[in-house]
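PROTEIN DESIGN WORKSHEET
SECTION A - STRUCTURE
LENGTH: 201
TOKENS:
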């Protein structure tokens, strides 16, 4: 854990040494090489941590939406909210899966990038529209996605953007910042605070 992260978090990242957290700590080090700061934060309330773990295990079984489209939607939502932790971790997870780095790298400035297909652009637009407050999803965009993806995948896309809003808003509110997963990623910034947060990682 870096000094910068420790200084900026709004809850202590020294988690209570419960049996549950020790198990999470062991798994996290084995799977990711370090203990994830959201787990440290949630460990202050074991019921919240346990519910979050069970929820994430269930999400991992969803399979009606292409994993690359899912990753783009999650990254777009995290970038719009300004969650540098989620952008950092999402980039790392997707690169581990073999996703093209340029597609992850350009998410905060996707409208100015030429690396995305029309379907990917619609997914990115949908994620941003869902993340806006209030949401700005329109019928035409939804119809295009429904026609291209089918209704089961559209429902999964919608649910995943909502889930990423939960993650990103919670992490941002708790002051959690990048843990350095994307060691060589320099996300291009723009005028928005989300882009600035991603670019600082």
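SECTION B - SEQUENCE
RESIDUE ASSIGNMENT:
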């Amino acid at each position: 854990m870096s000094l910068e992260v420790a200084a900026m978090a709004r809850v202590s990242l020294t988690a209570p040494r419960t049996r549950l957290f020790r198990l999470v700590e062991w798994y996290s080090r084995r799977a990711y090489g370090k203990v994830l700061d959201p787990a440290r934060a949630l460990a202050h309330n074991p019921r919240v941590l346990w519910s979050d773990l069970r929820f994430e295990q269930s999400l991992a079984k969803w399979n009606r939406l292409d994993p690359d489209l899912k990753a783009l939607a999650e990254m777009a939502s995290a970038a719009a909210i300004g969650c540098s932790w989620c952008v950092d971790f999402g980039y790392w997870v997707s690169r581990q899966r073999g996703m093209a780095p340029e597609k992850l790298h350009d998410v905060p400035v996707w409208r100015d990038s030429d690396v995305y297909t029309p379907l990917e652009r619609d997914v990115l637009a949908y994620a941003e529209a869902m993340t806006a407050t209030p949401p700005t999803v329109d019928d035409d965009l939804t119809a295009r996605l429904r026609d291209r993806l089918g209704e089961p995948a559209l429902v999964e896309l919608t649910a995943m953007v909502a889930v990423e809003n939960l993650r990103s808003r919670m992490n941002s509110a708790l002051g959690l910042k990048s843990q350095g997963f994307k060691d060589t990623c320099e996300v291009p910034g723009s005028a928005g605070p989300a882009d600035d947060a991603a670019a600082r990682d």
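SECTION C - NOTES
Residues 1-6, 184-201 have pLDDT under 50 and may be disordered.
The longest helix spans residues 151-173.
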